[in-house]
Amino acid sequence: MLLPRFDYYEPATLEEALRLLSEMGGNARVIAGGTDLLVRMKLKVEKPGYLISLRKIPGLDAIVRRENHGVTIGPAVTAAELSRNELLLDRFTPIALAAGRLGAPVVRNRATIGGNLVNARPAADLPPACMVLDATLKLKSFSNEREIPVGEFFRGPGQTVIEPNELLVSIFAPIPAPWTGGAYIKLGARKALEISMVNVAVILTLQSPQGPIIDAKIALGAVAPTPVRAFAAEEFLIGRQPSDDVFAQAGVIGVGMCEPITDHRGTMEYRCLMIETLTSRALRQAYEKALTWKP
Amino acid sequence: MKKTIQLTINGQQVQAAVAPNQTLVQFLRDDLGLTGTKHGCGLGDCGACTVILDGRAVNSCLVLAIQADGCDVLTIEGLAEDGNLHPLQQAFVDKGAIQCGFCSPGMILSAKALLDEKPNPTELEIRTAISGNLCRCTGYQKIVEAINEAAEVIRDREES
Ligand SMILES: Cc1cc2nc3c(=O)[nH]c(=O)nc-3n(C[C@H](O)[C@H](O)[C@H](O)COP(=O)(O)OP(=O)(O)OC[C@H]3O[C@@H](n4cnc5c(N)ncnc54)[C@H](O)[C@@H]3O)c2cc1C
Ligand code: FES
Ligand code: FES
Question: What would you measure as the largest C-alpha separation in chain A, in angstroms?
């Protein structure tokens, strides 16, 4: 498997990277971990003339706590780092758990959150996790800057709103309210190195340990062309007392949001059953995590 | 156009000119003759090409040689010391964790990255650490046992 020819740039500043991107436009690709891009280039799906590496740009690989209001994650932070970050494990649990399920350690050590989001595979692990955490993506070009809620970022398999001259420069997630817990469950045919058949990320907020549920967010991956929020199931949960029965009903409603396909990884019917089961299981886990919430 | 890179490979400084589209595994095998690193699928699926890059196990078929500029690379050739096999290598031999051997360099380096971080891993941690490395011969059980044994040997050695 050989790579086609290209020119390679390693800009030392963000400005330089943005200038290169604006000059080269559609013929250039950003390379972060390369675990998607190099595979696609070897398979001749993509043949960019220029690669622009993020490696030398300072700060893009940092996870920074923003006082009491949130966290900023650089696009070049690897899945391995996300999965062992204490702040993310505690407060932004779905991101840390999803990162820990992406590929295998040899992949996680290279794969970045920016690459995972921009790549926009329907079965990708981090998009649903970012969606339930209400993340905002900052996109920057040489002359412009804009912020997009992650829920409006994906357009279809492999498609996002990002322009060829734009760089994803940071991911911001607000800190969830007190008594919030999160969970992430991924179902594949084997434990590692497997793209999901179904994945579900969940955030649940209680008014107090005694309930009721005052906020719920559920996002499902691999069940439609883009990851989707199960809004009807979320609305159903709000105001109710948490219980296995309520979580099971939310799972049934969640299936209604999906248009799963039949392929070699599983049939449509099997996927629907799994969405239902995994949604209620993830809600239960998020509830248990919420009960352990500490200031 | 070729670019000059400088990196440390198995403790030695190396300077070389590489083409941008050369992967690290190609550079190691074709330019440096370090053929202990295997080239299997080329797509990140098999782990035969695993090396340790700045302390972390990675698939060297999905790293450009140019991206390793300034980095520290450890390959299977760098494990033995003074002609003595590393405890992981010895345990793989002793436990019958090697059959055809194609997966072994990658397995051993994934295991080394694990033991460097967690000297006393659980079986689940061992299995997770090698989950990106495929073996078509051994059925994994002997590999897991070998890593476990090597961990013990290394811990004993460090205590004494
Ligand atoms: C064996 C194997 C197993 C895998 N398993 C999984 C899995 O289980 N789950 C999963 O979700 N994925 C999986 N993947 C896919 C891949 O590893 C992830 O999507 C990874 O997060 C991509 O990140 P990267 O840094 O390697 O991206 P790259 O390959 O560097 O980039 C991917 C795309 O994003 C663009 N890009 C990257 N960063 C930016 C940025 N900051 N701004 C603008 N554009 C950018 C690139 O131009 C490119 O188009 C797997 C891949 C392999 C090879
Ligand atoms: S050759 Fe690199 S993972 Fe198979
Ligand atoms: S020993 Fe043959 S592939 Fe593992």
Answer: 61
Interchain proximity B132–A4, CB inside 8 Å: no
Output the six-digit token pair for B154. 């290394």
- Answer yes or no: are the C-beta atoms of B39 and B22 closer than 8 Å: no
Three-state DSSP state, B118: coil
Please name which of A64, A99, A55, A96 lies closest in space to residue A79, comparing C-alpha atoms.
A99
CATH class of the domain at A180-290: alpha beta
* Residue range A173-207, pLDDT digits in tens: 999 999 999 999 998 755 555 556 789 999 999 99
| Domains: count for chain B | 2
Please give the Cα distance from A47 to A208 (Å, whole number): 54
Q: Is B64 in the pocket of ligand 3 (CB under 6 A)?
A: no
pTM of the predicted model over 0.90: yes
Ligand 2 pocket, B49 CB below 6 A? yes
Beta-strand relationship, A213-221 and A228-229: antiparallel
B66 to A39: CB separation less than 8 angstroms, yes or no: no
Ligand 2 centroid vs A107 CA: distance in angstroms? 11
Same structural domain, B99 and B56: no
What domain range is B99 assigned to? 87-159
Does the beta carbon of A74 lie inside 6 Å of ligand 1?
Answer: no
ipTM: 0.96
Q: Separation of B87 CA from ligand 3 center, angstroms?
A: 19
